[in-house]
Known about the structure:
Helices cover 31% and strands 23% of the residues. By secondary structure, it is of the alpha/beta class.
Amino acid sequence: MQRDFIDPDGMCAALGDDPALLRAIVPRIRRLSDWARAQGLCLIHTREGYAPDLSDMHPAKRVRYGMKSPGAISDGPLGRFLIRGQPGHDFIADLQPEPTETVIDKPGFSAFYSTDLHAYLNSQGITHLILCGVTTSCCVQSTLRAAVDLGYECLTVADCCAALEMDDHDRALDLIASEGDLFGNVCDLKDLAGPLPHRPFAGKIRPMEDADGAKVLDLYAQGIATGHATFQDHPGDWAGFSAGKLPHPRLVAQSGDGDIQGFAVLSPTSVRPIYRGICEVSIYIAEKARGQGVGHALMAALVSASDAAGLWSLTAGIFPENKASLILHAAHGFRCMGRQRGAGIMPYGPMAGQWRDVLKLERRTRQSTCR
């Protein structure tokens, strides 16, 4: 977990990518690391990096990335990207190795490429590996495949891995589990170290009432104003909003002083009876209440209520740029099923006039046997 990938001033951010999905897993990796230390397991930290003169970068990679000379390496606030000894090459402060733990510096994606990792593992008698980190679709996947070919039994902790785009992450996990767990097994943090608690919400979650209509529409308008919540460019009236939603569950998050800080509702995806258990989630949080645990409290209550109501699939369509919503949904068991490219032309906001992709997410109820 290097600064060049995670830090707001690192390589990924400097090149125009949003590392929010990568940063979101830091608390889970810290919990997994603490659990592993408590179990007496051997922790090995890997980081990608190259010599300042690029002498250990494969010529083919240099050509592919336009790095024919050392001077071609870009730099940013944390120094030259992925160059050993630069600030960006180091691990983030929250996940620094303990003094006795092993660090593998790798000049490639796989931690086994041009390193002594395999020899070290053999010397320690290690035959089973637990993998986590970033990115799922590149370094994690490359290291995993090499490990399997070398005969290691591997377990990938899905929610302790991430990619810059959610669909890349979930496609990589699908490949790991394909063809009868071809590349080992996949689990979540809770299966090893127990669940990581979400930030508690100080208010209460209660059923939505018609009297909440004006406030609900105001919250909807706040979401629309971000330009990354929906194609819809206005909230409409209460009658129209309410008509397209299931009567139950409809939930609001109410603060201690009575203020409505968020809402969550479900919309049917089809009028055909066979699809009655499939509904689409809409969840909106007041601008002033974001990051305070409101979304997690609402989503947990909505998931519980939908399970109790016999719904078997919750879906969501989310713009790839809406990282906060993707993080929230992923934390409650939603997986990305795919990307609808060019789903529609955005009518307003910072991307007005542009065709926009939509990520299609789904969460299956625990009672469902479908993966």
